[in-house]
């Protein structure tokens, strides 16, 4: 992916490591939003990728919206520019949420505002002891991120974050069950990659349908959600990988998945 400028992608053993690299704090401007969306749309259609890890270069995961870029845009604003910016931003996050491959967030430092939105769009979260999640918009004349925070936090804490700018530190994220692990910075990618390899070892058909199902039923009733899952189970049964998983279980051997 040599056409990218602020996002780096490395693929090995069916795992794509996506690194946000927009110094100094991986702030999100137009180029950033467009490249993140492009990368995850590409990964969705790459058979050699079964899982992705999203992290930030340097000491920050992503500090959120690029305030300087927003101010410059406001000064030169033409009709439709603001709406286009909002569309790019939300599609950036949705590209992660809707990616056909599971995405693990390796939160290496502050994930603030739009950075929190990116982290919350991932499927599994791990963080370093240096990480914090926060919504600083109230202090910089902006709003947003609350709906993404609601995916991770309860009623009172979400409102505390949005109304005061409170930042939740890594160890507290682990205590609350928001992240699967909170480890020293030097171990973060090791832990994230171990999880990614576990996911990548499963049938890519099964993990794709599982993620699709989880996204679809997130706000469904119990009856509608479970019915949808049953339909996906029936769909999975038509794939060779499903039959291979059952044979391997009965024959007491590791399965060999082909993604079909």
Summarize the structure.
The protein is α/β, with parallel strands linked by helices.
Describe this structure as you would to a colleague:
Pfam families: ECH_1 (PF00378). This is Enoyl-CoA hydratase/isomerase family protein. The chain is of the alpha/beta class and 260 residues long. It has 11 helices and 9 strands. It has helices at 30-44, 67-75, 81-97, 114-120, 146-150, 155-164, 170-175, 188-200, 204-217, 222-236, 240-251; strands spanning 7-12, 15-20, 51-56, 103-107, 110-112, 124-128, 132-134, 167-169, 182-183. The protein has a 6-stranded mixed beta sheet, with helices on both faces. Strands 5-7-8 form a 3-stranded mixed beta sheet. Helix 1 (30-44) runs parallel beside helix 3, helix 3 runs parallel beside helix 4 and helix 9 packs antiparallel against helix 10 (222-236). The longest helix is centred in the middle third of the chain and has 17 residues, at 81-97. The protein is globular, with a radius of gyration of 19 Å.
């Amino acid at each position: 992916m040599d056409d990218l400028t602020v996002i780096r992608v490395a693929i090995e053993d069916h795992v794509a490591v996506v690194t946000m690299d927009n110094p100094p704090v991986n702030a999100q401007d137009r180029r950033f939003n467009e490249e993140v969306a492009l990368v995850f749309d590409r990964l969705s259609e790459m058979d050699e990728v079964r899982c992705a890890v999203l992290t930030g270069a340097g000491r920050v995961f992503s500090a959120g919206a690029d305030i300087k870029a927003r101010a410059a845009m406001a000064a030169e604003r033409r009709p439709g520019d603001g709406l286009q910016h909002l569309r790019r931003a939300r599609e950036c996050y949705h590209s992660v949420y809707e990616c056909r491959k599971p995405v693990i967030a390796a939160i290496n430092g502050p994930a603030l505002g739009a950075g929190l939105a990116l982290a919350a769009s991932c499927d599994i979260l791990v963080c370093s002891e240096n990480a914090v999640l926060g919504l600083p918009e109230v202090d910089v004349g902006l709003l947003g991120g609350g709906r993404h925070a609601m995916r991770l936090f309860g009623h009172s804490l979400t409102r505390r974050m949005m109304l005061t700018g409170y930042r939740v530190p890594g160890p507290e994220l682990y205590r609350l069950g928001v992240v699967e692990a909170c480890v020293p910075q030097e171990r973060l990618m090791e832990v994230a990659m171990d999880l990614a390899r576990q996911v990548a070892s499963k049938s890519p058909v099964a993990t794709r349908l599982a993620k699709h199902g989880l996204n679809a039923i997130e706000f469904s009733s119990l009856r509608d959600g479970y019915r949808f899952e049953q339909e996906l189970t029936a769909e999975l049964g038509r794939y060779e990988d499903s039959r291979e998983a059952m044979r391997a279980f009965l024959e007491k051997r590791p399965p060999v998945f082909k993604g079909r």
